[in-house]
Write the structure tokens for this entry.
Amino acid sequence: MVWLGLLLVVAGAVPALTMNGDLGGVDLTVAGAALMAVGAVLLVAGILRLRRRRRVGPPGAAAQAYYRTSTGKIVAMVIAVVYIVSPVDLIPDVFLPFGIVDDATALTWLLFALGQEYTRRSRAERRAP
């Protein structure tokens, strides 16, 4: 769900930020913004699911290990998604290229953090008895 949401945010950003005009009677800017909104909802829902405990190890084992993402990291990821999608930025997008760089930096950190959590979770599952 996280990766689909991230894909929709990026796919919606392209027409929302770069294209003007209609395609088949649909405004491309509005369609891109709607796609970004749907992607952001999926992305935030997927990030919030990281907080749930995941059982590591075979079911019924005496000692169960649990892996959870910290609350601070979850909050930072959600804030990054909101910052990427929101039109309010520290540096407005009209000041090219600096306006785009701050959004790209937030997106890069979000990709890194999601990849890191995926790697940690898969390592924890492999180490389980």
